[in-house]
Amino acid sequence: MLSDNLYQRFAALVRERAGLHYPPQRRADLAYGLQRAAQQLGVADLHQLLALIERSPAAWNDVIAELTIGETYFFRNAAQFAALREIILPDLIQRRAMVRYLRLWSAGCATGEEPYSLAITLRETLPVDPPWHMSILATDINHRFLERAREAIYGSWSFRETPEHVRDRYFIPEGGRWRLRDEIKRDVVFAHLNLVEPSYPSPQLGIIAFDIIFCRNVLIYFDEATTQQIVQRLYDALTPGGWLIVGHAEPNIEFYRQFETHNAPGTVLYRKPLHAPPFIPATAVSPPSPKLVSPPLPASPQIVAQPTQLTLSPEAWLQQARAAADHGDWSAARMQVQALLKAYPLFAPAYYLQGQIAEHHGQLDEALADYRRSVYLDPHFVLGLIGMASIFARQRQPDAARRALGQATTILSQHPDDQIVDPFHDSTAAEVLAYINLLWQQIR
Questions:
Q1: Which domains are present in the chain?
Q2: Which of 31, 349, 385, 438 is such that its CA lies 20 to 30 A from the CA of 366?
């Protein structure tokens, strides 16, 4: 029985740790979830359950597993996936044509149907010649859900809104159930994250610069103050022009006033304005979260352990890597820049240097991918555009080379002539522009 005292203590605990809001009208829901957790853990009553979860993180995870709802299925809410295909992706394909790379986040991914639906949709929608690349981060507070998501085996009920030809194309029958094909699984990385914790957005954790965030049917479990804080962090985690998709039960426009509102058939979409600042860091970072890294194109994202205490800033670390390259020690330079990117996965100049190393070794596709990534992370990074133009010229793609140089020229024209724009050689905008003019003459 959930007495008044226990109700208040449990409600305060789950609100403090997980942000879950159980007002009096939801007291019965809380009691039901706690009873199920007590049965799972083999404790006699809720007093013992409270004592257990106050000292055992594993027991707390079991409680969260019973209090969070994993009811989902593939392509849930067809109107939103139609808007993704017909409105969101065409917009991003046009604006990201230079880098051909998209980052997505499924926040509150439950057992994986949503992020895998996103992966399938992008594979069927993005252009293939030349190819596009993507990374999809999927997070949830429920460890059990994440285990099932990584397993990627589903029953028929998960496909109740999935056309049979889509299921047959991307899943393999297995003992009356369906296993997702490995090539789709590789598009998604799963990680534990509590949305209530102010640990994001964060370059160090790789939770930043998303083009699309799906956060559906999650915010309904929080009170208004917590919801407002989470929406702000989601806004900050989007790249300018990035899109947020929330559930139909979360339509309070007051939370989304800083977004542009776009009405689509059967749904409402929110887009971060194109002129918005590119990144606002989180004010606090919670230490237990794993590090989430999106590596260079076209590899899949991965999770790595938190780095040890860093003694170098990314700029100082970059100088060391550059010095090794300048002395012809390419192996040391590559190792330095790879270590730098593990610690600072969204540091654009590091991808540029990695591209230079690859280009020196004749690895043109790898170099182009790194140059693109540097421009994706910093659209005003003219060196990345110049690097792209160099590769395009060597690959006999003069039109693409000219587009990259034209974009770099436009950016430089907005800077004073004496402003330093090359962190490697301290070159000014006028000096880099003069170099670009020489490149223009060499492109045939």
A1: 4-67 (1.10.155), 78-271 (3.40.50.150), 305-442 (1.25.40.10)
A2: 438
User: Does residue 389 contact residue 401 with C-beta atoms inside 8 Å?
Assistant: yes
263: nearest Cα among 76, 77, 80, 75: 80
Q: What is the pLDDT of residues 202-242, one digit of tens each?
A: 776 678 889 999 999 888 778 888 889 999 999 999 999 99
Q: Are 84 and 121 in contact (CB under 8 A)?
A: yes
* pLDDT at residue number 287: 34
Rounded Cα distance between 346 and 27, Å, is: 43
Are the beta carbons of 44 and 55 closer than 8 angstroms? no
User: Which position has the higher pLDDT, 8 or 203?
Assistant: 8
pLDDT (tens digit, 9 = 90+) per residue, 366-396?
Answer: 999 999 888 888 788 889 999 999 999 888 8
Q: CA nearest 130: which of 410, 388, 407, 408?
A: 388
Half-sphere exposure for 271 (CA within 13 Å, toward CB): 18
Q: Strands 238-246, 267-271: parallel, antiparallel or unpaired by DSSP?
A: antiparallel
User: pLDDT band at residue 114, thresholds of 50, 70 and 90?
Assistant: very high
- The arithmetic mean of pLDDT across residues 387-408, rounded, is 89
- Predicted confidence at residue 1, as pLDDT, reads 66
User: H/E/C letters for each residue in 295-352?
Assistant: CCCCCCCEEECCCCCCCCCHHHHHHHHHHHHHCCCHHHHHHHHHHHHHHCCCCHHHHH
Determine the pLDDT at residue 170: 97
| Report field, pTM of the whole predicted structure over 0.90 | no
Burial 273-300 (b: 16+ CB within 10 A, else e): eeebeebeebeeeeeebebbbbbbbbee
Taking each helix axis as running N to C, give the angle between helix 57-67 and helix 27-41, from 0 to 180 degrees, rounded to the nearest 10. 130
260's enclosing H/E stretch is strand 260-264
Q: What letter would DSSP give residue 222?
A: S
Which residue has 């007093």 as its token pair? 47
User: What whole-number distance in Å separates Cα of residue 226 and Cα of residue 228?
Assistant: 5
